[in-house]
Design goal:
three-stranded antiparallel β-sheet, alpha+beta, binds zinc ion, 13 helices
């Protein structure tokens, strides 16, 4: 097309000429079919990393391989599954938020058999205590076996939860562990009660109804954001104005203990308000990389009450003092096999044990908590009316980032942001995550249940990882009596809704439907290995799933059209309604 010229002799001509057909450039411009396949799979909500399960029909012996969705909750693992999970979370929030009845009726009374079993368990506990006082260890062992059996029977009788925590047998975690002796928490290390009015908490979880003069009733709900304190002024990009004066240490500790602070907030709020306030929300990083939390609250609470409770709420960390870092990563304490303790590398003197350190706090009348977490002054709260676009928008907002890793919510794109993240991470690496964290060794203290394998600075605790920003726990926080349903209950609801619409009597599982005519089919499931001969290549499996989904989607649309022409049977059963796809 153009005559070749020596480079640099002429200005580059014709910038936008299409590549020569058949050239490498032209080939590279064509979309890759594999990518398109993945794209379409995502569009149709088909899992891109399905798990192959081999299902054997126990009546006929026929075997079939079925792809189950991987169920990932993060987009970087599987977009379609993460989106599906987000939709379920949205349904869960929507369903609990404005409800006007109690989601969970009180449990049924216990049967005589159940009571008898608990009584028996009580007798065994008494005998075990006697035997252990008399140091009759073989009897204790027998009684432990009996206790285990009774507890199994208790579960089998249909009682929920454990009667009592298991007995710890003295041999694990020897050394500084409180051998059998329950450590009594001294009054000094107890959490002080906040300065708030206290009422008895009613069982009620539903908010107040307001009646307008014209008789219409309103049951508004709330939306609340809680943030942490300031660690120093920041720029709009989240980085500190003065990195040297930004309090990274407090930022790290606050992030690690934020979940406990939130727990205490709800506890205080319930006591102050006198009813069992319910919430659903999430913990997300702010641009400055400190966590904050958004909550949907059922019912209304005066804004100044929320502010007062937030201001009065704190969480004290009663851990050993650690003002001085006595060891560094290149000069660490060493494990002394004989003493079975961590010792100073030079003097070989054993480090303070966890128990000794706590005893020292108890004995010191002037001891103070090593850290206190509080909320920042910024508490945003507003009312939300059920069924409004505002309510929907808020639900989308709460769930906006739940498919992302904490570290991916605000990606560092400038050097300044990367430096900020690094400084915070450096601090998180040496912050103790729990009382058993290896980092305690840096401060000359053997953590609880110390053992030879501890590696300071390399603790596996989630909060030390760079992309958690110290937010190590659950990020979705939903109180127990929110919708009265678990996520899989909600999943089941969605399926039941689609099935009702399609008029399918036996679902994919072929188990739980009441299609009385069909013989109940019993299946055995096993995980198939990717290299098993009956597992096709991934591309084939994806294509098949997409084909199935496309057909199924058009059937669903047709069924919806038919349903729309009928005189509205139960239009409220819907979930997210709009498109019933992507189950
Ligand atoms: Zn998936
Ligand atoms: Zn740790």
């Amino acid at each position: 097309m153009t005559v070749p010229t020596l480079p640099g002799l002429e200005p580059v001509p014709t910038p936008a000429a299409p590549p020569r057909p058949g050239s490498r450039a032209a080939r590279m411009a064509l979309p890759r079919s594999v990518d398109v396949l993945k794209e379409i799979a995502a569009e149709y909500g088909v899992c891109v990393r399905p798990l192959a399960m081999r299902r054997t029909d126990l009546n006929t012996g026929l075997t079939e391989v079925i792809d189950l969705p991987c169920g990932a909750t993060r987009e970087d693992k599987c977009g379609p599954c993460a989106k599906k999970n987000r939709r379920l979370r949205q349904a869960q929030i929507r369903e609990g938020w404005h409800r006007d009845d109690e989601p969970l009726p009180p449990p049924e009374p216990a049967t005589e058999e159940q009571k008898a079993l608990i009584l028996l368990r009580g007798h065994l506990e008494f005998s075990r205590d006697e035997a252990s006082r008399a140091s009759q260890w073989d009897q204790v062992e027998d009684l432990d076996d009996a206790i285990r059996e009774v507890e199994e029977a208790i579960t089998a009788e249909g009682l929920r939860g454990r009667v009592a925590p298991p007995h710890t047998t003295g041999d694990d975690g020897q050394g500084d562990e409180d051998n059998g002796r329950r450590r009594k928490r001294s009054t000094r290390r107890r959490q002080d009660a906040p300065d708030l009015p206290r009422r008895k908490v009613e069982r009620r979880t539903v908010g107040k109804t307001y009646t307008a003069p014209d008789g219409t009733t309103y049951r508004p709900s709330m939306w609340l954001t809680l943030t942490l304190d300031s660690y120093g002024p920041v720029r709009p990009d989240g980085t500190p104005l003065n990195p040297d004066r930004y309090d990274y240490r407090r930022a790290a500790w606050d992030a690690v203990h934020f979940p406990r602070l939130l727990d205490r907030f709800w506890q205080n709020l319930r006591r102050c308000e006198g009813w069992n306030v319910q919430y659903a929300g999430c913990v997300e990083p702010q641009r400055r990389l400190a966590p904050h939390a958004h909550f949907a609250i059922r019912g209304t609470i005066p804004r100044d009450v929320l502010r007062t409770v937030a201001a009065a709420t704190y969480h004290q960390v009663w851990w050993p003092a650690m003002d001085v870092q006595r060891y560094t990563l290149d000069r660490l304490p060493v494990w002394d096999e004989q003493a079975s303790a961590w010792v100073d590398p030079d003097t070989h003197a054993p480090l303070t044990t966890w128990t000794e350190a706590l005893d020292a706090i108890d004995a010191d009348p002037d001891a103070e908590p090593v850290h206190v977490v509080r909320f920042g002054a910024q508490v945003d709260a507003r009312g939300v009316m059920p069924g409004t676009e505002d309510a929907e928008r808020t639900i989308r907002y709460v769930t906006k980032y739940i498919t992302k890793h904490t570290g991916d919510v605000h990606k560092a794109t400038t050097d300044r942001q990367r430096r900020h993240l690094d400084r915070l991470w450096q601090e998180l690496q040496i912050t103790p995550c729990t009382d058993r964290c290896a980092n305690w060794l840096l401060y000359g203290i053997q953590p609880k249940r110390a053992h030879a394998k501890l590696k300071p600075g390399r603790c596996k605790g989630k909060v030390h990882q760079r992309d958690t920003l110290g937010i190590g726990g659950r990020r979705i926080l939903i109180s127990r009596d929110w919708s009265g349903k678990t996520l899989s209950d909600h999943k089941h609801d969605v399926r039941a809704w689609v099935r009702a619409l399609l008029g399918v009597s036996v679902g994919l599982e072929g188990v739980d439907d009441q299609g009385a005519t069909v013989e109940p089919v019993r299946y055995a499931w096993e995980l198939a290995r990717p290299d098993d001969p009956d597992i096709g290549p991934m591309a084939h499996r994806l294509l098949r799933a997409i084909g199935e989904r496309a057909r199924w989607r058009s059937e669903l649309l047709a069924a919806k059209d038919r349903a729309a022409q009928l005189p509205d049977p139960a239009s409220t059963t819907g979930t997210d309604g709009t498109t019933g796809e992507k189950l």
